[in-house]
Amino acid sequence: MSSYPDDRFYSKSHEWVRVEGDIATIGITDHAQKELGDVVFVELPDAGEIFDEGQEFGTIESVKAVSELFLPVAGEIVESNKGLADEPGAVNEDPHGDGWLVKVKVTSDGAADGLMNAAAYEAFVEEEAKA
What we know:
The structure is a single chain. Helices cover 21% and strands 34% of the residues. The protein has helices spanning 30-36, 83-86, 90-93, 118-130, and strands at 9-10, 15-20, 23-28, 39-43, 50-51, 56-62, 66-70, 75-80, 102-106. It has a 6-stranded antiparallel β-sheet with strand order 1-2-3-9-8-5. The two termini are 24 Å apart.
């Protein structure tokens, strides 16, 4: 059984995307949160900000390091997960659920083109671990 939900797509920078209509919810994968360790702070953009695919949209800070977050789809931020300001650990506890980061109004069709499904992402993580 995969630890990555089948209802979303995954990027090589370890973000996930779940598209519902023209809204994409974005978070980091379980693999990414394990690599980071305990998340202590998340910096996210405000609603209304527009980003290109692959553009840095925020940072996530753990006890080990600060990492950039990259948007796997182009679009306008419609909501940031304000709960993470008080509970950044939700990213560790439920990375594919309550630990989501932003919701984006997708600006192009085929938003998930170029992203991996759960099985492909799992294989990518395994290959990366061997490298």
